[in-house]
Amino acid sequence: MDMKPFHSIGIGRLLMATFVILAICGIAIAASSSGYPRTIVDDAGRQVTIQMPVEKIVPLDSCGAKMIYLLGAQDKILAVGSDVISRSGYLPGVKERQSVGKWHEFDYEMIGELAKDGDGAAANTIVLCTVTGMDPVSEIAPALEGFSDITVIGLDTHKMENVTSDLERLGIVLEKENQVVENMAWYNQKIAQIEEAVAGRPAPRVYIEMGTSRGLGDLSTYGVTSSTNKLIKMANGYDVCREPKTFLKVAWEWVIDRNPEVILKTGSVDTLGWSRRPSQDATGLEKTRNEIFSRPGADTVSAVKSDRVYIIWNSMLSGFDNVVGAAYLAKIFHPEIDLDPDEISQEYMSRLGLDAQEDRVLVYPHPGISA
Q: Residue 139 falls within a domain, yes or no?
C-alpha cells in the first residue's frame, strides 16, 4: 500500500480541522465580551467600534453584499451601491433595494436620510466599502463623518487572502459568530477537497483574459499579485503571466509566444452565469470563443489546437465565490479528477438563499463536455 497519498491527505485534513478549531476559538474570544461596544480592526487598519446592535447596512460592493447574505443578515440591507446590482442582481431582493450611486458618485445625503427612522432619529447603520477597490474607505469615511450613528467599515472582501478573516470581522459586527463558524468550516472543507483532487498532477500553462480587453494589442490579464493568479495556482494551474502586478496589458503576440495550454476569458453579467444552450446566451458565448479561435496565429497555440478555450463567469473568481471558481478551474485544468464543481456551486448558492439553478452555466463550454 502506498502510504504517501494517504499521509498527504491525512495531513491536509488535520490542518483544515485545526484551522477551523482555531477560528472557532478566535471568534468565541472576540464574542465573549457579550454586548456592546464591539470593536474590530478593518482592512485599512482602522479601529472601528460599534456602540449598539446594527439595524441597517449599506453595502457598496458586491462581494461585501454576498457576505451579508451568507451571514443571514440580508434583511438589514437598507440600500446598495450600483456595483451590487450590476454584479449580484441574482441575489434575492437585491434589485428592489435603493441604489445610492456608483463609485466616486455616491449620494451621501441620501445615505444619511435613509439611515433615519420614522421619528427622524438615526438608526445604527454601517456602510460597508472596500479599501483598495472602487469605493475606498479613505473617500467614503470622511464624506459620512457628519452623519450620526453611521459607521464606515473598509473590508477588501474581494481578495482571496481576506475571505475568512473578513467574514469573521463582519460576523462580530453583526453578532453572527455561529454563522461565521459554519460557513468557514464548509469553505475550508471544500478548498481542501479541491487541493487534494489536483495534488501531484502536472500544472497546465494558463492564460486568462479579461472581458474588458480592447483589441489584440490591448488585452488585459492578471499578474502574480492578483487573487485570480492565486486561484489558478490553488487549482494547480500555471499562469503564464509572471509579472509582479495585479493587472497589466499584453498583446496577442505575447500570448502566442507563451503558448498556453488553457485559455480562459472572463464574462461579466448581473445574472447567475448564463442560460444553457440552446439560448441567446450560448450563441453569444460561442461567438466570443470563435473570435479567439480566429485570431492570427491562433492555430499554433496549444489551447486552441486541443479545444481548451473557456468563457468563465468572473464573479466566481473573487470573494467567497472563489471556492466555486477554484472547483471549476480545477476541473478545467484536470478534467480527469473526481470532483463535481456543479455540486459545490449548488451548495454555495443555497448558502446565499438561492434555489437550484440547473438551467444556468458558469463556464462555457462546461468542463468535460464538448462545445
A: yes
Residue range(s) defining the domain that contains residue 210: 202-364
- Written as one letter, the residue type at 132 is T
What pLDDT, on a 0 to 100 scale, did the predictor assign at position 5?
39
What percent of the chain shows pLDDT beyond 90? 79
Amino acid letter for position 228: T
The answer to whether residues 208 and 352 belong to one domain is yes
Same-domain check for residues 136 and 211: no
- Count Cβ atoms below 10 Å from residue 361 Cβ, excluding itself: 24
147 belongs to a structural domain: yes
Residue 62 neighbours by CB under 8 Å, 6+ apart: 83, 84, 86, 87, 88, 315, 319
What would the DSSP string read from start to end of 75-108?
GGB-EE-HHHHHHHTTSTTGGGSEE---TT---H
Residues 6+ apart with CB under 8 A from 234: 191, 194, 195, 326, 329
- Rounded to two decimals, what is the model's pTM? 0.89
Cβ neighbours, 10 Å, residue 203: 16
